[in-house]
Design the sequence.
């Protein structure tokens, strides 16, 4: 004979999960269940495993879960923001590149992925997790600086500050949506009241990439930026030639900046 679980048990389970989500936030881990529900680690692990099998929670990473549906729970908390997955899945990491340009209003363009800079080991640079697209770039842990924390629902997420965002996309135009988008973001940044050229240069120095300053100097000069910024980039002009955007056919050399650019860019600058 088949017995349906009693409504009391379902209600108790709903209350437990609502309590857990309410206290832990969007991402649920074994430690959360252990401390919030006053269980030992084995009990907490078994409970989450059972809830997963029953379809109440979904696994989004190693030891990380989200509530699959809370329609029948006392809480109305649902997963809507993919950014909340980043700390649980990719730490140490921060939101950066094109995703950060959107957040800091450097662009009106909308991207359909979340760009993540992570020091964790990754097997695939493009992943779909919990029906959300993530683009990942692996970086050295020492390169995690110039970030700030923001709250998304109940989760604390790290994101590159506006200055580091500009430096990152100059360092690697691919994560910035391509060099044309990078230039547009730089132009917007230079007009902002909170732009900080000295800090921009400091961040660039810490990344220690000569190509970054060649791109920055070239774009700064092309867009009538301050003489100070252009001069600082010239001071950091390294030997050898770099590409404005490695993804493009850069077949014309701007000797002034030791930078290979596409023909149309050279025609526009007259250099």
Sequence:
């Amino acid at each position: 004979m088949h017995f349906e679980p009693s409504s009391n048990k379902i209600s108790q389970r709903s209350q437990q999960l609502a309590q857990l989500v309410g206290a832990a936030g969007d991402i649920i881990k074994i430690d959360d269940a252990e401390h919030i529900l006053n269980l030992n680690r084995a009990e907490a692990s078994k409970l989450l495993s059972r809830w997963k099998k029953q379809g109440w929670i979904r696994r989004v990473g190693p030891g990380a879960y989200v509530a699959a549906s809370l329609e029948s729970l006392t809480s109305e908390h649902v997963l809507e923001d993919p950014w909340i997955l980043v700390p649980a899945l990719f730490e140490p990491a921060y939101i950066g590149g094109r995703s950060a340009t959107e957040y800091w209003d450097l662009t009106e363009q909308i991207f359909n992925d979340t760009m993540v800079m992570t020091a964790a080991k990754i097997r695939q640079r493009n992943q779909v997790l919990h029906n959300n697209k993530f683009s990942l770039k692996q970086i050295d842990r020492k390169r995690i600086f110039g970030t700030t924390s923001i709250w998304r629902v109940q989760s604390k997420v790290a994101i590159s500050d506006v200055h580091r965002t500009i430096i990152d996309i100059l360092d690697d135009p691919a994560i910035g949506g391509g060099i044309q988008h990078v230039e547009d973001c730089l132009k917007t940044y230079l007009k902002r009241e909170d732009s900080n050229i000295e800090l921009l240069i400091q961040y660039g120095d810490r990344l220690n990439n000569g190509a970054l300053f060649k791109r920055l100097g070239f774009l700064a000069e092309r867009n009538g930026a301050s003489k100070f910024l252009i001069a600082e980039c010239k001071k950091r002009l390294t030997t050898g030639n770099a590409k404005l955007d490695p993804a493009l056919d850069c077949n014309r050399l701007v000797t002034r900046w030791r930078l290979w650019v596409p023909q149309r860019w050279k025609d526009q600058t007259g250099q």
